[in-house]
Each structure stands twice: as structure tokens, then as C-alpha cells.
Design a protein that fits this description.
- Helix 3 packs across helix 5.
- The protein has six helices and nine strands.
- With 239 residues, it is α/β, with parallel strands linked by helices.
Amino acid sequence: MRIDVVSIFPSYFDGLTLSLLGRARDSGILDLNVHDLRDWTSDRHRTVDDTPYGGGAGMVMKPEPWGLALDQLASARAGSVAEPVGPRPTIIFPSPAGEVFHQSTARELADHEHLIFGCGRYEGIDERVFEEAAELGEVRLISLGDYVLNGGEVAVMAMIEAIGRLIPGVVGNPESLVEESHEDGLLEYPSYTKPSVWRDREVPPILLSGNHGAIAAWRREQQIERTRRRRPDLLPDEG
């Protein structure tokens, strides 16, 4: 998979060189590239924002740097902007006005060949950028939840982490991805390790029994109970 990220703060993404995603980049499983939006400006101040039409507080990101950046990155799939070759990229902009990101979203996007993330700042990006981007690929506005961040970088980091770990070869033991929270609509069961007694707190005896069928049943019960207690909205209506 190829992932391109456009931001005015590219150093935000230095953490992607670490751990599993860093190793995936080094091994060639993940082609991850971070770009500075200011590289597509033409004035000496490298300006990326201006005052909003119609008035209002704050500044809005200018369309032309975004247009130039997306033209170039979308054509990276092969060919040229005029005659591209291969699947169109999926272009994602974090936005509190977008669809909510779920584990199912991460699984879907992990199957795409080329993702482009655009990190907005200030009061957002000129709306025409989204319309223009739709000429180059599938545009998705995605929200992490019902709150507002200072910019898109944190949201993009979270999405890349969630998506990247689902790419085959990134996580060493793929079975560890199966029993996680939200994979089957439930929260994950509690986990324990040695010692079996710690500060007078014991590991549940069933986990020491060696009875794998009973352990599987206990874990399922724990998933349902934990979900009912912490996230009842995830459970189907029982009435």
C-alpha cells in the first residue's frame, strides 16, 4: 500500500518511523510518504491561508497549494494527471463534519492501494478543494468523533495506525488481530500474565485450568459483560 500525507507540520509524523509501522516501511510492506504543503506554494512567505469570504473568525486554507499537491500525488499511481494508470486513490480529509471512523472503516481502507491524507488547519480547507479532489479519486471526509482538534494531524496519525496494522505482514501474529475490541462488535476480554498472584490479586482460575473450551466461553462472557457495562450502545436491542 502507498500512503501519502500532506501537512504544514510534517514533523508531526516522525513517530511513524517507530515500532511496527516503522518496520513495515523499512521492509517495503508500506510505502509511506509525508509531504509539506508549503512545497506547493509560490510566494516567498510560502502562504497557505487567507481570510474567509463572507467574513468570520480565523483563516481558511487556500485552494491552489492543495490543488497542486493533489495533482502531483494522485498521478504518483502511474501515468500522468492527464492520463493516469491504475486504480484511483482514495483521498481522505479529517473533518468533524465527516463520517465517523470505525474499525470497519479501517478494515475497508486497508484493502485500498493508495491513500492520500490531507491535514487541514485553521478554520478548514476551501470547499472547492474537495470538489476538485473528486476529479482525481474517491474523496472521504472522516471524523474520529464528536469533538474538534486544532488540525488534522492527530486524526491522520490515528487512522494510519489503525489501517496500517491491518495490512498483511505488518503485525507479526495475524491471529492477534482477530480477538480485539470492535472486531466482532464487542469489546476485548481482559488479559493477564505472570505472576498468577500480584499484590494479593489473583488471575481468574479458569485461565490456569488448561481447559481451552472453558477459557473461550469465559472470554466470550467477559466480552459481552464488559460491552454491556462500558458500551451498551454496541449491543443489539434486546427488546
